[in-house]
What we know:
By secondary structure, the protein is mainly β. It contains no helices and eleven strands.
Amino acid sequence: QVQLVESGGGLVQAGGSLRLSCAASRIITNINTMGWYRRRPGKQRELVASIANARTVNYAESVKGRFTISRDNAKNTLYLQMNSLKPEDTAVYYCNIWAGLNYWGQGTQVTVSS
């Protein structure tokens, strides 16, 4: 059973930065898509950023130009660099890997104060 463990969340002031990491417990083969989702207070979970087929990157309009998704295959790790954070980015962030099976992390809280 593969486990995804997120880290890097926390409390930051508006305009600040955080980098989230998502480490897989073992190598996952046949990955189709890797991504970050978030659930903001009172809202449904939404896609923040994704990498499909190891090359196609997609961002939610609300984070374009501020967030960057990347992966380190050697470390089985997915990252989300978040810059110019806004209070509306406050959410629980989840990593996801789709490889025939759907893997989810437990989530990491990001709180942006104004």
